[in-house]
Structure formats: C-alpha cells, structure tokens
Amino acid sequence: MSDDGRTGGQAEETGDGDGGDPLRVAVIIGSTREGRIGDAVGRWFVERARVRGELDLVVLDLAEFDFPVHYPERATEQMTEFAGAIGKAEAFVVVTPEYNRSFPASLKQAIDFAYEEWQTKPVGFVSYGHGSTGLYAVEQLRSVFTELHTVTLRNGVALDFLRTPLEDRAGACARDRAVGLMLGQLGWWGRALREARAVRPYVS
Fold first, then answer.
1. What is the pTM for the complete model shown?
2. Which pLDDT value is given to residue 2?
3. Which pLDDT score, from 0 to 100, does residue 164 have?
4. Is the pLDDT score of 3 beyond 80?
5. In sequence order, what DSSP letters do the residues of the chain get, joined into one string?
6. pLDDT at 21
7. 142 vs 144: CA distance, rounded Å
8. For residue 147, how many C-alpha atoms fall within 13 Å in the half-sphere facing its CB?
9. How large is the angle between the packed helices 172-199 and 38-49, nearest 10 degrees?
C-alpha cells in the first residue's frame, strides 16, 4: 500500500530499472554550519540509494566548495564547477535542515549559481530538524525550484531527530520506506524527462 492508501507498484521500492543508462543523480548537502549533521544525513541517504543499480550518484557537499561571499561579476572556478555538476546531473536530491522555518542561505546561494542547468529535471528532498521535520524549508524550496522549471516530487524523506534519532532502529523501517518511495518517483520522472529532452528542446 502506498501512503495514500493505494496499492503501489514494484517501482516504488526497488526502482523500475528500464535497462538503459543509469540515471545521474546529484545529492546536494545544503548545510555548511560547523557542527552540522547534514553530512551524516547525506551519507545515510546515499547508503540506501546506492543499492539501486539504476542510479549513478554523485554527492555535492556545499561545505567542500569555496564560494565567494559576494556574488562576483564573473563566475569563479568553484561556481563554474558546481554549475557544471548540476548540468551533468539528470535528477537531484536536496538534503536540507530547517532554520527559522526556512532553508540555509548557503543552499540558496548555490542554487542561484545555475539556471538552465536545473531545467526539466526532477528534485526530491531529504529534510531534517530537532522537533521539526524540515517541511517549512521544503515548501519554500518547492517555490524556488518551480521558478527554475524543475519538477519537485510529491514524496520526500522528513526526519525528526528530537523524536527519532537517525541511529534509532525503531524508525528505520518507515524511513527506509520513505526513501524507496521518493527514489521510485525520482527514477520515473528522471527517465521520462530525459526521454522528453531527447525528443524536443525545452522552451522556458
């Protein structure tokens, strides 16, 4: 059964594997704060996503980029590197905390370094917080990514570390199921949009 009460297909849990090239997925870790847990959340998610052979994963940890404080007149090498990685990807998973009912400034800065590179690709979200599952941040990110002509997924992964720490096995089944549902949708949209781009150019 899916989370809306309907019987789901096998693609929800294991991917629908179309036998073609693996879908190139960029996992973006949005927090750059000292003492963050975003890198641990990112590793946890990637470990589960890697079991799906139809996905080719690359991690873009924003803490590993040296972006300028002020937006320069010309793009720096690091900005160009990030935008290039976005352009190569065919789908995205954004790992984000919720700060004051929004997402980190570091994530917005990085998103703005690319534009056409985002277009006609699906975006899923892994959000987290202490007492909050990060859904306010996700809802704001949906608006941003809609402006960038992406498709944001219905299902996501929302983690509340106040009630269920990541290492707590009690919630592992529900968390893993949420990952499977989201990745099933990401794979379907990623391949469908890949095929559409091959048929005709997108007009924004």
1. 0.90
2. 43
3. 83
4. no
5. --TTSSPPPTHHHH----SSSPEEEEEEE----TT-SHHHHHHHHHHHHTT-TTEEEEEEEGGGS---SS--SS--HHHHHHHHHHHH-SEEEEEEE-BTTB--HHHHHHHTT-SGGGTT-EEEEEEEESS--SHHHHHHHHHHHHHTT-EE-S--EEEETTTS-TT-GGGHHHHHHHHHHHHHHHHHHHHHHHHHHHHS----
6. 94
7. 5
8. 9
9. 70
